[in-house]
Write a structure and sequence with these properties.
This protein is mainly beta and about 375 residues long. The chain has one domain (about 50-345). It is about 10% helix and about 20% strand. The strands form three sheets. Strands 2, 3, 7, 8, 9, 10, 12 and 13 form an eight-stranded mixed sheet that branches. The chain has a three-stranded antiparallel sheet with strand order 4-5-6, with no helix packed on it. The radius of gyration is 20 Å and the shape is globular.
């Protein structure tokens, strides 16, 4: 469904400030609406990181997804610090999961004074109110079974990462007091999960296998890009979807049998309109993970299905109209900030990535 730029309902009301949004699709039965709006967010704090991982590049693969409205800005900060240096010499686990179809949330502008009367249903809770998160290092065996030991150790470090100074946390280690930010005279953080002490956006790290991507449409960057991913831990994947549900209003229904698919989104269209610019915050972490400014950048062709990636995200929310045309619905979503390629796709058969069809033994007709 195509994006809609104007969320204002009353022509007499002066046009509000445009906010940014990214539609997120869950692997749950909850349907996504067509009217999102997400605030522009700032980059994370610059700190150094060193985590080493080895592998080799792979060719590109066409993506697939949907389309909403532009408003995010690329993450320009650098990674927080670790002191780990790890190398690997083995393949990644094989993942075979079809990406789910996604209902795209179309963009809208921020609430006008007329709509603001119906905006009281926003979530004011904290991450801690969700209760304890699953143990981040309890991975599903079939999703890490072919990981070499050094890579597995690195994955465990990244899964439990917690750096308050850099405002960066693994999904299962998010600051318990994190909540929606506040609005000051210079910045509206009310639609992004923030550290209440600083009102700075929380950077969330998530390790997953890619199941599908979407960056281009008709040979050109689309207005929105997205990456659908499968968690290394089904329990942590369900926790991510529960987080989205709890931080939405009304709460989204949750599929208890969900395998942990999650969709992250980012607008490629400039804030003030114009030609979309291809998402470029993609970094090569196959040998070492460190500060962004010290890493080699990759193009989207490296983001292949089954590749293991570390995603850096923000938790945002956007508005939707209810059945009465009022902006009373608020839905949470993960907005993509950066991608770190940790391992190329693993194929049991080296020819699997290039060949298709069924091999029938002794066929002679």
């Amino acid at each position: 469904m195509g994006p809609k730029r104007d969320a204002s309902q009353n022509k007499d009301v002066s046009p509000p400030k445009r906010m940014r949004t990214a539609a997120t699709s869950l692997a749950t039965p909850a349907s996504m609406s067509d009217e999102p709006a997400v605030p522009q967010t700032e980059s994370p704090t610059t700190v150094s990181t060193t985590t080493s991982i080895a592998s080799h590049p792979v060719p590109g693969e066409p993506p697939s997804s949907e389309e909403p409205d532009p408003t995010s800005t690329p993450s320009m900060g650098t990674l927080p610090s670790t002191s780990t240096s790890i190398t690997t010499d083995g393949p990644m686990s094989h993942q075979s999961t079809a990406s789910q179809s996604q209902d795209t949330a179309a963009p809208s502008q921020d609430l006008s004074s007329d709509n603001a009367l119906h905006a009281s249903t926003t979530i004011t809770g904290t991450i801690g109110a969700l209760g304890p998160a699953p143990e981040p290092c309890h991975f599903d065996h079939d999703r890490v079974s072919t990981c070499p030991e050094p890579l597995l150790n690195c994955i465990k470090i990244l899964s439990t990462y917690c750096n308050s100074d850099a405002n960066t946390f693994g999904l299962g280690r998010i600051l318990p007091t994190a909540t929606w930010g506040t609005t000051d005279p210079y910045e509206d953080r009310s639609k992004v999960l923030c550290n209440p002490s600083t009102n700075e956006p929380i950077n969330i790290w998530l390790l997953r296998h890619i199941t599908s991507t979407w960056f281009m449409k008709n040979g050109a960057p689309d207005s929105q890009c997205s990456i659908t991913i499968l968690s290394l831990s089904s329990k942590l994947g369900q926790y991510a979807n529960r987080l989205l549900s709890e931080f939405s209003s009304p709460k989204l229904p949750i599929n208890e049998h969900d395998r942990g698919l999650l969709r992250t989104v980012r607008w490629q269209s400039p804030k003030n309109g114009g030609t979309p610019i291809l998402f470029s915050s993609i970094y090569d972490a196959r040998e070492i993970l460190k500060s962004k400014s010290m890493m080699t950048k990759l193009n989207i062709s490296y983001l292949q299905k089954r590749a293991l990636v570390l995603l850096e995200m923000h938790l945002n929310r956007y508005r939707q109209k209810d059945e009465n045309g009022r902006w009373s619905i608020s839905k949470a979503q993960f907005e993509l900030e950066a991608v770190y390629l940790l391992q190329d796709p693993y194929y049991l058969n080296p020819e699997q990535s290039n060949e298709s069809g069924v091999e029938i033994a002794d066929l002679a007709i």
